[in-house]
Design a protein that fits this description.
This protein has 302 residues and is mostly helical. It has one domain. Helices cover 80% and strands 1% of the residues. A hairpin with a 5-residue loop joins strand 1 and strand 2. Helix 8 crosses helix 9.
Length: 302
């Protein structure tokens, strides 16, 4: 099988995760708090840590400072879902997903500062296109082009935190090893979730109330979302072994297009699972903005 189709499967799965998260939030978490879903996300990391511990025990032996850094990094990763989920609570998945393309921009800046990786003219132009597309998709056409400031800033914060997470993970993994770094990172996310559950009474009440009300369905949906997310990461990693990483980034740039496609399918055939605004002007806005973002990603990694 060509590396392209393997790489394309990753954003296809991540796009499905976006819609599952949107469904869970609007169906079970609206008015109940985003913290419940964040706790679910962090707790799932404990299972991954157990598997790594069983199959690769020797890889987890790290220096204390490295362990501390990557555990905190795991907490940052889980915390990055909080602003993302707040944005997803009020906006469609096809609006939120393209803003993930801000992550490479922050990645370039952090790489320049900490890894001495400098931007070329081509990368600056590509970055500008990505930012332009992100701003374009954040305009509210129903209110005289009112900019959706709050959800946009939520996604900026989430993207920045994920970029930091990627930087720290890379720095530690290069010094130590991949599976050990993953173990301590997932464990850090689990510890952060336990902290939220233990120290924030509101989050604890929301989490327990959600479990009590829709135990099997909510858990099943969250499990499905996490499994898809893990599978997407594995596919992207495997594809990177078959082709240059830059090409994988280009393919990942089509995720907003797939999210929009899924949204249209759900609206037309299963509206109870998702609803996309199909008015011509909104579709035109999203398609144009997505094309601008895709062009920026293509320029960045051509």
């Amino acid at each position: 099988m060509s590396w392209f189709w393997i790489a394309l499967a990753a954003p296809a799965l991540w796009a499905a995760v976006n819609h599952i998260d949107k469904y869970i939030i609007t169906k079970y978490f609206t008015g109940k708090g985003i913290g419940s879903l964040v706790i679910f996300t962090g707790l799932s990391g404990f299972l991954i840590s157990i598997l790594i511990l069983i199959f690769s025990y020797s890889s987890i032996i790290f220096p204390v400072l490295a362990i501390l850094a990557i555990v905190i990094n795991g907490a940052i990763l889980v915390a990055s879902f909080i602003p993302y989920l707040y944005a997803l609570e009020t906006e469609e998945a096809s609006w939120v997903s393209p803003l993930w393309q801000l992550i490479p921009i922050f990645g370039f800046v952090l790489g320049m500062i900490f890894l001495h990786e400098y931007l070329s003219t081509k990368q600056i132009i590509g970055s500008a296109l990505v930012v332009l597309g992100a701003v374009a998709i954040s305009l509210n056409l129903t209110e005289k082009f009112k900019f959706k400031t709050k959800p946009f800033l939520f996604m900026v914060l989430s993207s920045f935190m994920i970029a930091i997470n990627g930087l720290v993970f890379k720095m530690v993994a290069l010094q130590e090893n991949f599976w050990g770094t993953a173990f301590w990172e997932y464990l850090g996310g689990f510890i952060f979730s336990v902290f939220l559950f233990t120290c924030l009474p509101l989050y604890r009440r929301q989490f327990l109330a959600t479990i009590a009300k829709s135990r099997s369905l909510v858990v099943s949906l969250n499990l499905a979302s996490e499994l898809l997310n893990i599978a997407a990461k594995l596919l992207a990693n495997f594809a990177s072994l078959l082709a240059p990483l830059a090409l994988i980034w280009v393919v990942n740039g089509v995720q907003p297009v797939i999210v929009l496609f899924y949204g249209i399918i759900l609206t037309l055939f299963i509206p109870q699972w998702g609803k996309e605004n199909l008015e011509r002007k909104f579709l035109a806005q999203k398609i144009i903005a997505i094309l601008i973002i895709f062009a920026g990603v293509f320029v960045l990694f051509k």
